[in-house]
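User: Need the bound-state model for adenosine-5'-diphosphate:
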Amino acid sequence: MDTEIVRGDITQQNVDAIVNAANSSLLGGGGVDGAIHRRGGPRILEECRRIRAASGPLPTGQAVSTTAGDLPARWVIHTVGPVHSATEDRTHLLTSCYVESLRLADELGARTVAFPAISAGAYGWPLDDAARVAVAAVRDAAPSSVTTCRFVLFDEAAYAAFDRVL
Ligand code: ADP
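Assistant: Bound-state model below.
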């Protein structure tokens, strides 16, 4: 699997699947989540509501998929990153977001997948560590139909952090 980084907006990526840094409610939020629902239109939220009604809140570190609505991608994979904690090591949960998202992408038959810097926004994860965990998780992931993993970093600081790790 090739790993690449670009600076940009994940909603505009021409890939099979984009990953959403969602929250457990699956009912939308700020940051990447807000942008995806805003630009992707109401069908994404409709599917999220159905999943939520059938299965309840999505646990941290897990992933589900929906249509990508009006976005160029075919699917949105919603995963819930851990809130950063100064007292508890939650790295395994952040790793799980990447692993489970890639596993789901493989099930869907996606070949190209774009990730944001999960947990590095509202959830407070220090950028350098978020980048280290993300890159390690993707490097160690099992072989799958995914040929390209693209990290899409919204600002210069996030791009620089991923660039240092890669
Ligand atoms: P979390 O709650 O998991 O921390 P956020 O959405 O708050 O998720 O932030 C995760 C990262 O995504 C942050 O680095 C933020 O700057 C970035 N981000 C925000 N909007 C976009 C976007 N449209 N495309 C890509 N990355 C984005």
